[in-house]
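Would you kindly consider the sequence and fold I have copied below?
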Amino acid sequence: MGDLARVAVLGASGYTGGELLRLLATHPGVRVTVLGARQAAGRTLAEVHPHLASGPLAGMRLEPLEAEDLPARADLVLLALPHGVSASLVPPLLEAGLRAVDLAGDFRLPAEAYPAWYGFEHPAPDWLERAVYGLPELFRDVVRGARLVANPGCYPTPVALGLAPLYREGLLEPGPVLVDGKTGLSGAGKEPTETTIYAATQDSVRPYRFPRHQHTPEMERSLALAGAEPAPSVTFVPHLVPAVRGVLITCYARAAAGATTETLTEALAAAYAGEPFVRVLPAGAMVDSKRVRGSNVVELQAVVDPRTGAAVVAGAVDNLVKGAAGQAVQNLNLMAGFDETTALPTAGVYP
């Protein structure tokens, strides 16, 4: 791809698109060449994202998503679009020689799953078979050579990272897993709705889209890809909380005979030793979504309740960074041959 990667960002006007551009603006190996959008086409980045008005990309003007000359102006495209849009946009770009990281759910599942979980028939099933699931800590080697990377969802990221090593080490019994999730409002996107406006969300904690949230089959598939045998069935209940950023998940499984808090913690620490973006907490410490805000870090903890035999694994990420844009830049770095940590913060914004 050369020393300087030309990158197009489609969906540049949304929260995730803005976060991609915040990170890419200081990336020494990237030149952002195209900003794609629909309703915001024609406006400058500074007008759409005033918090980026002092940055090097501020004067760039957003263009229509279907810009005909895009393949001639980019080497790699990042797509931060609503579910169902990338499935049609990506194949022509790939056929023109570009590589792509899709941040929506359009390439995360088998074709037969899309009608039930996303509500559409997938228009490019052949590319689904060639897409790589882009969770670098588990699938780094295949990401490097991929043409198309399906960026994981914010909830499945800590679920897969927290559970996969424990299944591989035989520390969890086969069987169903319960996943409780909490997320801030930015996960719902930039467009306000009756359920995401301030009056509806302040002082409110409520479940949503249960039991048909589209991240449920993604959690099951990510664990299967990571070697959980047999892959567990997942019951997932997400909740909206009155915060802007952050995801916290709590997973409940059955501990294997002899498993303890210490053996689970040691297994996670061994699996992620040297990983710059995974912070395994010592026994007794508790994850905190605020500590990872603004960073590309996931915090993990594991506990065995000896009274009930339950294994509890908790994880926290910033849904816009390690849960979306940061992970996409991490995948871009692998695909383009850059150091994986380039332009990605490990320190959270606190308090």
